[in-house]
Amino acid sequence: MKREGIKKKLDQWKEVLYERIVDGVKHRGICCLLAFMALISFIWYAKEKYPEWKEAHSGVPDVVSSMSVNNAHHLKLIANRSRIEDKEEFAREIIHMCQDNSFHSIRFSTDINGYPLELNILVYLNRKELEEGELVFEIEFSTDDFSGEYDIKNDADKFRLYLDREEIDFY
């Protein structure tokens, strides 16, 4: 009799244990399924946003707007960076890119009027900040001579570089 009672108790424990294991497996399965669905959603979202993020953090400056008045060029430029560590060095780099006509999105038409006689550049970190009007700084590359003889490429020594209206060294 004792054996039957013990056997009965063991069978009851087996059933309880089996039910808990089955419930645990079901619970884990549901958790795994939810985690998998969350992972797929994250990958899909990242796939959609990655090209935009990559462009905004490529580090390659890009001119998005250009206007010329009397061969003085007014540009809007996005830096495609999260921040600009050295604004003066960045300003020099941009002027050199203008002199070399090396922007991917825009080329100065130098065949008729030659190179620009003056540059005014508004710098934004990325497209989003451009749309929101969050200007980082302004670059001006100009000369005191208004005769129109000097251009930014061939007469750079006659020009002065300004960063937010304060003169900085250009080399």
Produce a short descriptive summary.
The chain has 171 residues and is of the alpha+beta class.
**What is the count of structural domains?**
2
Q: Please bin the fraction of helical residues.
A: 40-55%
Runs in which pLDDT lies below 50 for 5 or more consecutive residues are none
- Describe the oligomeric state of these chains in a short phrase: single chain
* Distance linking N and C termini: 103 Å
Largest sheet: 6 strands, mixed
**What's the arrangement of strands in the largest beta sheet?**
1-2-3-4-5-6
> What global shape is seen?
rod-shaped
SS elements, strand count: 6
**Helix and strand succession?**
HEEHEHEEE
Secondary structural class: alpha+beta
Annotation field: number of helices: 3
Outline the structure in words.
- The chain has helices spanning 2-56, 87-99, 127-132, and strands at residues 62-69, 72-78, 118-124, 137-142, 160-163, 166-168.
- By secondary structure, the chain is of the alpha+beta class.
- The protein folds into two domains: 1-56; 62-168, no CATH class.
- A six-stranded mixed beta sheet has the order 1-2-3-4-5-6.
- Strand 1 (62-69) and strand 2 (72-78) form a beta hairpin.
- The longest helix has 55 residues, at 2-56.
- The protein starts with a helix and ends with a strand.
